[in-house]
């Protein structure tokens, strides 16, 4: 093999990885991360492994650990284009903690992973500050994470984020389809906006219209990019408090939740309904927030595609016993969560499938109940 002259030594830095920048980022994020810690977090900040004291689980008769992992999807492309990075972390937390609360689990701790083409300490610190803020909202600890510099794989201004959460629920108190009964009431909790699903559709609309992210949209009262970067609402603490409120007598008036993410309202609600049942949802009980109506009109998006892609103003759903519906709605609205009744669970109708796109049964590998959407959205 013929040796070629190398004019200068090749180092990690010349290969595109800046170790010192990574250390700087860690220092900038340190205070935000440690602010999520309680006495249960062991080992301090910066260890090889995050540690959480599980002594608290001895109070459970049958502690069942739960976990969820997710990312934020192509919403990060808008954050990068706008050079706004301190909200995307809250989106990440919402995607995972609100999945495990569906079964009644309390989130205990979270870890994150950030991959980037070039570590810019201030940018990485902003992302992690957003994650830490989300963890505070969810009452969970951020106990570990990793930032990886991938030059040549990602552009210098590109990054992606992922995270995982671990939670716990009492084995005899797990929520799910087996608790749902005919006659149960379906309650919607308002979303804060688009949350973190459907951004490939939205970005396609923006590209087709030739809009810019800093373009002011009158209906939003701010720029397009600012509206689409509105962070995901985190429901975990509210949902856990609602469980305590409704299930204090052990009768499980709170049957279950559905986190409305990719697939939309009908597909996600169907996953938490038992076979042989159907939830009938009345569209006229709410009007589409401006972000959805404006984008739908701009892209001339068919209603069926909208409903199977975006949350359309409903970020979380609770299924409750009929006797508890009024108290649940009163409690939620009094505690700052805009909520309303959108439907009811009944027996599966033999002719439901004839409704076409208005009816969904089975989604994401779950052969559950059905969901029928009817009526028109309020104006």
Automatic annotation (TrEMBL):
<keyword id="KW-0067">ATP-binding</keyword>
<dbReference type="InterPro" id="IPR036676">
    <property type="entry name" value="PurM-like_C_sf"/>
</dbReference>
<dbReference type="InterPro" id="IPR010918">
    <property type="entry name" value="PurM-like_C_dom"/>
</dbReference>
<dbReference type="GO" id="GO:0004641">
    <property type="term" value="F:phosphoribosylformylglycinamidine cyclo-ligase activity"/>
</dbReference>
<keyword id="KW-0547">Nucleotide-binding</keyword>
<dbReference type="GO" id="GO:0004637">
    <property type="term" value="F:phosphoribosylamine-glycine ligase activity"/>
</dbReference>
<feature type="domain" description="PurM-like C-terminal">
    <location>
        <begin position="181"/>
        <end position="347"/>
    </location>
</feature>
<comment type="similarity">
    <text>Belongs to the AIR synthase family.</text>
</comment>
<dbReference type="GO" id="GO:0005829">
    <property type="term" value="C:cytosol"/>
</dbReference>
<dbReference type="Pfam" id="PF00586">
    <property type="entry name" value="AIRS"/>
</dbReference>
<dbReference type="InterPro" id="IPR016188">
    <property type="entry name" value="PurM-like_N"/>
</dbReference>
<dbReference type="Pfam" id="PF02769">
    <property type="entry name" value="AIRS_C"/>
</dbReference>
<dbReference type="GO" id="GO:0006189">
    <property type="term" value="P:'de novo' IMP biosynthetic process"/>
</dbReference>
<dbReference type="InterPro" id="IPR036921">
    <property type="entry name" value="PurM-like_N_sf"/>
</dbReference>
<feature type="domain" description="PurM-like N-terminal">
    <location>
        <begin position="63"/>
        <end position="169"/>
    </location>
</feature>
<dbReference type="InterPro" id="IPR004733">
    <property type="entry name" value="PurM_cligase"/>
</dbReference>
<comment type="pathway">
    <text>Purine metabolism; IMP biosynthesis via de novo pathway; 5-amino-1-(5-phospho-D-ribosyl)imidazole from N(2)-formyl-N(1)-(5-phospho-D-ribosyl)glycinamide: step 2/2.</text>
</comment>
<keyword id="KW-0436">Ligase</keyword>
<dbReference type="GO" id="GO:0046084">
    <property type="term" value="P:adenine biosynthetic process"/>
</dbReference>
<dbReference type="GO" id="GO:0005524">
    <property type="term" value="F:ATP binding"/>
</dbReference>
<protein>
    <recommendedName>
        <fullName>Phosphoribosylformylglycinamidine cyclo-ligase</fullName>
        <ecNumber>6.3.3.1</ecNumber>
    </recommendedName>
</protein>
<keyword id="KW-0658">Purine biosynthesis</keyword>
<keyword id="KW-0963">Cytoplasm</keyword>
């Amino acid at each position: 093999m013929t040796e070629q002259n190398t004019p200068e030594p090749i180092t990690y830095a010349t290969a595109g990885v800046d170790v010192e920048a990574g250390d700087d980022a860690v220092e900038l994020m340190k205070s935000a991360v440690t602010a999520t810690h309680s006495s249960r977090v062991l080992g301090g900040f910066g260890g090889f492994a995050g540690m959480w004291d599980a002594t608290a689980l001895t109070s459970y008769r049958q502690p069942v650990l739960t976990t969820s992992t997710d990312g934020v999807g192509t919403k990060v492309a808008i954050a990068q284009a706008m050079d706004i990075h301190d909200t995307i972390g809250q989106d990440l937390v919402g995607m995972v903690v609100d999945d495990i609360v569906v079964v009644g689990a309390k989130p205990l701790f979270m870890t994150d992973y950030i991959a980037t083409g070039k570590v810019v300490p201030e940018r990485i610190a902003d992302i992690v500050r957003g994650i830490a803020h989300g963890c505070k909202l969810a009452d969970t600890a951020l106990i570990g994470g990793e930032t990886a510099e991938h030059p040549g794989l990602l552009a210098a201004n590109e990054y992606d984020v992922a995270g995982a959460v671990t939670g716990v629920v009492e084995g005899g108190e797990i929520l799910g389809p087996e608790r749902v009964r005919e006659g149960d009431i379906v309650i919607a909790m308002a979303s804060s906006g688009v949350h973190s699903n459907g951004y490939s559709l939205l970005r396609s609309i923006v590209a087709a219209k030739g809009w810019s992210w800093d373009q002011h949209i009158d209906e939003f009262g701010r720029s397009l990019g600012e509206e689409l970067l509105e962070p995901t609402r985190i429901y975990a603490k509210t949902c856990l408090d609602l469980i305590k409120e409704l299930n204090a007598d052990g009768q499980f008036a709170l049957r279950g939740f559905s986190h409305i993410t990719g697939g939309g309202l009908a597909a996600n609600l169907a996953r938490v309904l038992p076979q042989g049942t159907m939830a009938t949802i009345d569209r006229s009980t709410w009007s589409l927030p401006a972000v959805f109506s404006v984008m739908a009109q701009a892209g001339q998006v068919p209603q069926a595609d909208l409903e199977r892609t975006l949350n359309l103003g409903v970020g979380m759903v609770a299924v409750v016993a009929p006797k508890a519906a009024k108290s649940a709605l009163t409690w939620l609205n009094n505690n700052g969560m805009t909520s309303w009744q959108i439907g009811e669970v009944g027996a599966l109708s033999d002719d439901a499938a004839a409704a076409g796109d208005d009816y969904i049964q089975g989604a994401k590998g779950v052969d559950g109940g059905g969901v029928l959407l009817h009526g028109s959205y309020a104006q």
